């Protein structure tokens, strides 16, 4: 059997190619290696500068915010009232409890509390939203409740009757009221006013828009009196007026002068007396 011939290889010669390749890769004079190192250094420098910039920016913002809060600019300088022309602005500010030592940010955080406090103090106010101008000038934007009409008081003055049946806190002159809303006269008891308001709310809108006066000066608790825009007077029963008012248009078209239209029991009319005209504030 022939012996297998064994060829000897020099290990150094075998490794020389690999060692030459590694030495080239690690050689700083190698253009590829230099480019990679520069790119890596640039990325690290950029990341460092970015982190440093964020830290500086955050610190400056914190210092500015802190400086603002400890300065007088953070305090409430003035309070302006918008949306409630008939209400007394000074009384609103006083009722809110806000003062010059309060922080502007604090007023925003307590917005709901201010709204509840002012709504309790002034029946006319439904809600309050707070805004600012020039950093520390606080504005109370007031939304008022819907006005149904006006209740007459002494010396030709009036108060608003609100959608929830409450009476407004402010006294108004005849020039300040909305002439398109009905006036309620002769209502000294709030219970009587509430009952007639309930009846008024159940009338058709077309009829509501024709009523200029509602009188509480009735002969009986179950009686109700309307003065219409055409100066006709409608008398009805509190339990049936909502269903009988539909006959008003037909009856009035047959009249030649302002009259009393009685719908309490049947349906008939008669001319107005001078005393009734004066009592119900109907111009001659």
TrEMBL record:
<dbReference type="Pfam" id="PF08478">
    <property type="entry name" value="POTRA_1"/>
</dbReference>
<keyword id="KW-0131">Cell cycle</keyword>
<keyword id="KW-1133">Transmembrane helix</keyword>
<dbReference type="GO" id="GO:0032153">
    <property type="term" value="C:cell division site"/>
</dbReference>
<dbReference type="InterPro" id="IPR050487">
    <property type="entry name" value="FtsQ_DivIB"/>
</dbReference>
<protein>
    <recommendedName>
        <fullName>Cell division protein DivIB</fullName>
    </recommendedName>
</protein>
<keyword id="KW-0812">Transmembrane</keyword>
<dbReference type="InterPro" id="IPR005548">
    <property type="entry name" value="Cell_div_FtsQ/DivIB_C"/>
</dbReference>
<dbReference type="Pfam" id="PF03799">
    <property type="entry name" value="FtsQ_DivIB_C"/>
</dbReference>
<keyword id="KW-1003">Cell membrane</keyword>
<feature type="domain" description="POTRA">
    <location>
        <begin position="74"/>
        <end position="145"/>
    </location>
</feature>
<dbReference type="InterPro" id="IPR026580">
    <property type="entry name" value="DivIB"/>
</dbReference>
<dbReference type="InterPro" id="IPR034746">
    <property type="entry name" value="POTRA"/>
</dbReference>
<keyword id="KW-0472">Membrane</keyword>
<dbReference type="GO" id="GO:0005886">
    <property type="term" value="C:plasma membrane"/>
</dbReference>
<feature type="compositionally biased region" description="Basic and acidic residues">
    <location>
        <begin position="1"/>
        <end position="13"/>
    </location>
</feature>
<comment type="similarity">
    <text>Belongs to the FtsQ/DivIB family. DivIB subfamily.</text>
</comment>
<feature type="region of interest" description="Disordered">
    <location>
        <begin position="1"/>
        <end position="32"/>
    </location>
</feature>
<keyword id="KW-0132">Cell division</keyword>
<dbReference type="GO" id="GO:0043093">
    <property type="term" value="P:FtsZ-dependent cytokinesis"/>
</dbReference>
<dbReference type="InterPro" id="IPR013685">
    <property type="entry name" value="POTRA_FtsQ_type"/>
</dbReference>
<feature type="transmembrane region" description="Helical">
    <location>
        <begin position="48"/>
        <end position="70"/>
    </location>
</feature>
<comment type="function">
    <text>Cell division protein that may be involved in stabilizing or promoting the assembly of the division complex.</text>
</comment>
